[in-house]
């Protein structure tokens, strides 16, 4: 992948460099009013994250929620945390476009993620089952890909069908198939990721949904459907974490990034 394209992908995930924010704070962006990223901060730490929502009203709602002493909940687990929030750059006319947020609670275990996804209300705790794809699923995916060549941005020769993962909430609903693909490296830019390609199986039929920028690190239930939202993390100079939904193609939901 050409460097310009690589940087465009990372920019779409991180959306804004934390270096552009005063003090180099990390940044969370979200298209949903009930979801944001933040550090797991202990009682003795103070690491705010600049949280941007699609609407100023959502930033105000988060600030009011935390100011009222109400808890926030970790996505998928519903552990309760306290939060503090205030407008970012309070003296600016655009102050309410973002909020500086601190989430406090138990410190993560050694080796665990230092950041989390949080909601203003309890979340669904769907348990996603993962397994290796079957030989029949591999054959069906290959037949779909061969029948639809050439497909833009789908590197058929680099897809590792035998290493694909099947994800489902039950044996009766749709199954998400995530296939490892081409590797993208930029050593001067300290960037590495392996693209993954998403397919959905429904009643024996297969359909291609789109590309994820990196390997999945988690699956979440946002709206009670049988297709997961997928969390990925690219290896970049800083943090490049993003959440994607796949119900109508692969679409960005939220991101956490910066240096």
Largest sheet: 11 strands, mixed
The amount of helix comes to 10-25%
- Which stretches of 5+ consecutive residues score pLDDT under 50? 1-23
Backbone shape: globular
Indicate the radius of gyration in whole angstroms: 19 Å
What portion of residues belong to β-strands?
A: 35-45%
H/E element sequence: HEEEHEEEEEHEEEEEEEE
Average predicted confidence as pLDDT:
86
SSE blueprint:
Elements: H1 3-14, E1 26-30, E2 36-39, E3 49-53, H2 56-67, E4 72-74, E5 80-87, E6 98-104, E7 115-119, E8 129-132, H3 135-147, E9 165-168, E10 175-186, E11 191-202, E12 205-212, E13 216-220, E14 229-234, E15 239-245, E16 251-258
Parallel strand pairs: 1-3
Antiparallel strand pairs: 1-16, 2-7, 3-6, 4-5, 4-7, 5-6, 8-9, 9-10, 10-11, 11-12, 13-14, 14-15, 15-16
Could you walk me through the main structural features you see in this protein, from its secondary elements to its overall organization?
- Helix content is 14%, strand content 40%.
- It has 259 residues and is mainly beta.
- It has an eleven-stranded mixed beta sheet.
- A hairpin with a 2-residue loop joins strand 11 (191-202) and strand 12 (205-212).
- The model is unreliable at 1-23 (pLDDT under 50).
How would you concisely characterize the structure shown here?
This protein has 259 residues and is mainly beta.
């Amino acid at each position: 992948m050409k460097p310009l394209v690589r940087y465009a992908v990372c920019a779409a995930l991180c959306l804004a460099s934390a270096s552009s924010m005063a003090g180099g704070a990390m940044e969370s962006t979200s298209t949903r009013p009930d979801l944001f990223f933040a550090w797991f901060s202990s009682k003795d730490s103070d690491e705010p994250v600049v949280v941007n929502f699609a609407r100023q009203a959502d930033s105000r709602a988060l600030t009011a929620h935390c100011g009222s002493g109400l808890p926030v909940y970790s996505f998928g687990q519903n552990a309760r945390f306290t939060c503090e929030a205030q407008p970012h750059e309070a003296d600016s006319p655009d102050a309410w476009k973002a909020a500086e947020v601190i989430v406090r609670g138990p410190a993560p275990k050694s080796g665990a993620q230092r950041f989390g996804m949080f909601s203003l209300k309890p979340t669904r705790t769907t348990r996603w089952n993962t397994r290796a794809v079957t030989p029949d699923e591999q054959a069906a995916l290959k037949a779909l890909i061969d029948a639809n060549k050439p497909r833009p941005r789908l590197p058929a020769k680099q897809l590792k069908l035998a290493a694909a993962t099947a994800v489902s909430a039950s044996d009766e609903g749709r199954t998400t198939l995530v296939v490892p693909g081409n590797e993208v490296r930029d050593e001067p830019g300290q960037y590495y990721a392996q693209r993954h390609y998403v397919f959905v199986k429904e009643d024996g039929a297969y359909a291609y949904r789109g590309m994820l920028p990196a390997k999945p690190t988690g699956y979440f239930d946002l709206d009670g459907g049988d297709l997961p939202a997928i969390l990925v993390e690219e290896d970049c100079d800083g943090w490049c974490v993003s959440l994607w939904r796949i119900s109508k193609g692969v679409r960005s939901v939220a991101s956490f990034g910066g240096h």
